[in-house]
Amino acid sequence: MVERVLIKGSYLWDGSSDELINNGALICEGEKIQIVASLAEMPPSAYDTVLDFSGCTLMPGMIDSHTHHSMDPTMENYLDRMSDSIPDLTIRATVMMKKDLLSGITTCRTLGDKEYLDIACREAVKNNLISGPRSIVAGKGIRAATGHGFVGYPYNGKEEIKKAIKDNLEAGADFTKIYITGTLRGNGDLPSYLTREEIATAIETSHEAGVKVASHCVGGVGLDWALDLGLDTLEHAYHISDHQIEKLGKSRTQPVLTPSPILNDEIVNHYPQHLIRGHYDERDEISSRMRSLIEAKIPFALGTDGMHGELYNEAKYVVELGASNLQALQALTLNGAGVCNIEKETGSLIPGKYADIIAVEGNPMENILSLKKVKLVVKKGRVVSN
Fold first, then answer.
1. Are residues 300 and 352 located together in one domain of the fold?
2. pLDDT tens across 231-245, in order?
3. What are the pLDDT digits (tens) for 253-304?
4. Which InterPro entries does the entry mention (predicted)?
5. Which domain holds residue 115?
């Protein structure tokens, strides 16, 4: 017989409502959520075990919508360390995944790792060989031979890009990651390292196979091309123009914001030396662009870009840039599930969805840094941290 577990807290946020349920509770049976209501409405015979998290808010498990399993920005020169050996990167990835899970991240979307190690990690978690969030993975990132992309692999021309996507999908990738631009503007415009035709090939090939396309793209003509051609998710968008924000709002493209690589000194100071000054120089401009995108009320998801276990910081940054606490919370849950294409499975506390649940101390609607104080993590009905 499957045990029925009641989890109760001082508050419950279901992932979509703009209000909390006072003295909220839910019942899990096996992997799924069965009932969500106030404690007073719970039938007393409907559960076998009680987990009491008074003083906490129950909410959906968080989703890091942009990360890399094997990346560790706390390491000196960490971008160059992405060229470490595959065994070293894989061991690092297993440590980072456990750190993510214990911080309340029940789903990760990885935007490329070396030699399909993200696919291996995804399967290892499924088979209970290692501890970590469920993973939605891109496999090998696709960049131009002369373009940006520390975690990407170089491909030239439409045929190579088409083959790379097919190889990724045959290996088990869930979506496609391409690199269109660099990250910083520097002293000039933002060139597109992929041609319009190459971007179109990546999108058409992926869509024909039924998968989404994500792109590292911060602005410039490449962003215009990507929006015109039907890009699914826009990663970073650091130098997006007002015109492009308007265009984005009319498109089906979903933005994924990653404030930490610009605003978190610990990350910036661990870049290769020749990149550090530029990130500080462009911080104010990029902050202004993210603020404008947030003010446009375009739904967005959030990612750490490898700052494992610190997704709460991304929420803090976007709130400082003008987002409401509700917008930030939805970016970490329901919007993230949409980006990952798993909104029917997780991202909100609704009967029938997976029991991906966390309890955070306090009320994140009032203090977004409550997300830092995770007291319970449940993934697919299994308590992994209490």
1. no
2. 999 999 999 999 999
3. 999 999 999 999 999 999 999 999 999 999 999 999 999 999 999 999 999 9
4. Amidohydro-rel, Metal-dep_hydrolase_composite, Metal_Hydrolase, Metallo-dep_Hydrolase
5. 62-340
